[in-house]
Amino acid sequence: MKRSTxxxxxxxxxxxxxxxxxxxxxxxxxxKLLGREIPxxxxxxxxxxxxxxxxxxxxxxxxxxxxxxxxYELLRAVHSLNDEDLxxxxxxxxxxxxxxxxxxxxxxTYQFKHALIRxxxxxxxxxxxxxxxxxxxxxxIDERFPDLKNAxxxxxxxxxxxxxxxxxxxxxxxxAATSATANNALNExxxxxxxxxxxxxxxxxxxxxxxxxxxxxxxxxxxxxxxRGWAAAETVEATEQAAMxxxxxxxxxxxxxxxxxxxxxALTSGELTAGAKLADQAVDLAIRxxxxxxxxxxxxxxxxxxxxLGRLVDAENDFAVGSAFFGxxxxxxxxxxxxxxxxxGSWNAWIMGRPDLAVKxxxxxxxxADIAKxxxxxxxxxxxxxxxxxxxxxxxxxxxxxxxxxxCQKHGFPQALGHVECALGxxxxxxxxxxxxIALIRQGIHSExxxxxxxxxxxxxxxxxxxxxxxxxxxxxxxxxxxxLAAIPDLLVTKPERLRVHGELLLNQGxxxxxxxxxxxxxxxxxxxxxxxxxxxxxxxxARLLDQQGRRDEARAxxxxxxxxxxxxxxxxxxxxxxxxxxxxGA
Length: 587
Fold this sequence. Notes:
Elements: E1 4-6, H1 18-28, E2 37-39, H2 40-51, H3 56-66, E3 69-71, H4 72-78, H5 83-95, E4 99-102, E5 109-112, H6 115-123, H7 127-144, H8 146-151, H9 153-162, H10 166-182, H11 186-200, H12 207-227, H13 233-249, H14 252-268, H15 272-289, H16 292-308, H17 312-323, H18 329-332, H19 337-351, H20 355-368, H21 374-390, H22 394-411, H23 414-430, H24 434-450, H25 454-470, H26 474-487, H27 495-509, H28 512-529, H29 532-548, H30 552-565, H31 573-584
Antiparallel strand pairs: 1-2, 3-5, 4-5
Helix pairs in contact: 2-6, 3-6, 7-9, 9-10, 10-11, 11-12, 12-13, 12-14, 13-14, 14-15, 14-16, 15-16, 16-17, 16-19, 17-19, 19-20, 19-21, 20-21, 21-22, 21-23, 22-23, 23-24, 23-25, 24-25, 25-26, 25-27, 26-27, 27-28, 27-29, 28-29, 29-30, 29-31, 30-31
């Protein structure tokens, strides 16, 4: 029977036994080893060399259990040899080119010269002896090496895992995940959570195990949402599986959270109606469950879905209910939950013609972001930047978006990256760095598509269209608005603005009737939604067109009506422009 073992993924030093490896490959007639398989001949050669080590073989094997690198101090603590004998054995191993050494005992550190050596030494141990040694190493680190224990919980977790001390291993994997999350090493945190989940599933079935499993799945879903994106296949699959388990267990608290996660994935994917139905379901269940955490989570989800569907009044009502729980410390610990809802609450207020309220919520948004959590900061800065774009305060938007982009690139947040690139590009266009801005918006749209986030593509296509129109690329700009209008039909929150930009581009093309129709459709939709900011902006566009056609009285009357509705924000660019236009029209 053909035997093989596996290469470890630890490329340390110049590979030994190159002649044996080359000969083994040539003899096999296969110049491409599958995976990391070690041919049986090389494996046998490694074992033969280990056997020739005599008593030093045990020292090498104990070192292989500790890891690819180990300190003299830890090896001495778990080895039965005295210092003199142990140091003699280690000299034999370094002289035999099996180990590197740095420093002198007792401060020396040793490293296997190649992963193959460590693999062979480790695999030559009986499984029972490996388990015994892993337990001994774990106990020794736990009791005598506090610095190593605190700095590298994943090391202790691995040893408890191999020792089949499941409960202790789970504890350390969770500690490793918490530490990695605190250091914003989210991929490492994800790996540790997954190890903890695998071990949890090995425990005997019980209500406690089920509860721990669901909590771990929620942590995994959140980490996936940040590192992969809400709509990524991996995140969606994890969410679906967790929701099914929670439903079968009738755990209302967890069911609410998983349904909210499913709603977020649906919204990001552009499935707004499905996302809204899930949010409604979450609210119903949260009311039954009754905790402030679930209520905040569910009403927050429905704030988002109502906003994107253009149900602005409903979004305001849900925001009022959900935000009442934001003072609860447990609610504030929800990953990005408070930040996301405050972000949408700020945008919603601005669109409804309440710019002062929007700025007030923006301040709450910035204050709510935990400075120790880069993902919170990115979302808060992006949310603020987008509000400033809407308010046409482009220098502020540029500063905020640039700050968010730096963090995105540093920590790798794929879904947020597209938002931030687009926002920065729009700000660049606003400060007349048009070509640079267009390139950034295009890059951002590409990033959004890579992150499976079509929800955000549609509106940023509108910004792109406006920028293209500004440089005279009217045909390409019109194509962009048509794509934006067709992409997600029920994304109504920004549709009045998409129609306005489309109408302006048609004006540039000389299609006056089509332009007027688009502008009037924008105004009608904005009125039906209560989107006063969009209504004001489009009314100015239509008023200018009517004035050019000699219909000044009609233009003045319709602009005066929407302008007089406002009770705040008179120092904002749109209201200043509206006032100036009214004066020009003779009001």
